C-alpha cells in the first residue's frame, strides 16, 4: 500500500514538471499557517500554485529526467511554486514579502536558472512587447529602403527638368529659371 502511495506522489511530481512552464524551487522555513494561506492566496492571484514536496519523492523522479541538474537544490524542506505561465516577476514580488521562503532556483521553459537568473529573467520585457519592437524595426527597414531608392529618381527628374528648361530657354533666348532648391535637395 505504501508503494502505491509513493508511486502516486511521484506521478504527481512528474505531472507538475510536465504541465508547467515555470517551476521554482524554494527553501521552506516554518511559518504560521495564516501566513502560508495568505502567501498562497497572493500567488494564486497570478496563477501560481504552491506544492509541498518531500525530497524522497522528488529526488528519484528528477534523477531519471531532464531536470536532474535541479537535484542539488533538494536538500532541506522545499516547496515548488509552479505555473503554466512564466510569472517570474509576480512570483518574486510576492516572495519579497515572505522572508521564510527563499528562492533557490527555477526551471522556466525547460531552462534551469539560478536565483540571479530568475531575477534577470523577470526584468526582461514580455514576449509580446519584444515581438512588437521587432515588427516595428522590421517595418521601418522597407520604408527606408523605398525612400533611398526613390531619392535617386527624384533627383534625376529634377536635373532633367532643369536641363529641359535650359534647352527651351536657349530656343526662345530667355534665361532659364533656376530650379527650386527642394527639387535638387534630399528627398
Automatic annotation (TrEMBL):
GO terms for cellular component: ribonucleoprotein complex; ribosome. SUPFAM superfamilies: Ribosomal protein L10-like (SSF160369). The keyword Ribonucleoprotein applies. The keyword Ribonucleoprotein applies. PANTHER family: 39S RIBOSOMAL PROTEIN L10, MITOCHONDRIAL. This is Large ribosomal subunit protein uL10m. It comes from Aptenodytes patagonicus. Belongs to the universal ribosomal protein uL10 family. Keywords: Ribonucleoprotein, Ribosomal protein. Residues 168-187 are annotated as: Disordered.
Amino acid at each position: 500500500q505504501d508503494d502505491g502511495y509513493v508511486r502516486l506522489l511521484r506521478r504527481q511530481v512528474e505531472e507538475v514538471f510536465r504541465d508547467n512552464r515555470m517551476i521554482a524551487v524554494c527553501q521552506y522555513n516554518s511559518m504560521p499557517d495564516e501566513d502560508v494561506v495568505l502567501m498562497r492566496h497572493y500567488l494564486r492571484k497570478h496563477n501560481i500554485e504552491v506544492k509541498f514536496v518531500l525530497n524522497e519523492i522528488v529526488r528519484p523522479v528528477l534523477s531519471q529526467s531532464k531536470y536532474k541538474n535541479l537535484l542539488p537544490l533538494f536538500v532541506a524542506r522545499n516547496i515548488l511554486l509552479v505555473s503554466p505561465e512564466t510569472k517570474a516577476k509576480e512570483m518574486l514580488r510576492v516572495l519579497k514579502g515572505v522572508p521564510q521562503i527563499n528562492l533557490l532556483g527555477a526551471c522556466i521553459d525547460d531552462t534551469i536558472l539560478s536565483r540571479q537568473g530568475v531575477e534577470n529573467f523577470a526584468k526582461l520585457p514580455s514576449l509580446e512587447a519584444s515581438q512588437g519592437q521587432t515588427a516595428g524595426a522590421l517595418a521601418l527597414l522597407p520604408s527606408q529602403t523605398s525612400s533611398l531608392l526613390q531619392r535617386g529618381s527624384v533627383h534625376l527628374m529634377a536635373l532633367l527638368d532643369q536641363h529641359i528648361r535650359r534647352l527651351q530657354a536657349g530656343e526662345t533666348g530667355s534665361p532659364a529659371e533656376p530650379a527650386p532648391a527642394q527639387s535638387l535637395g534630399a528627398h
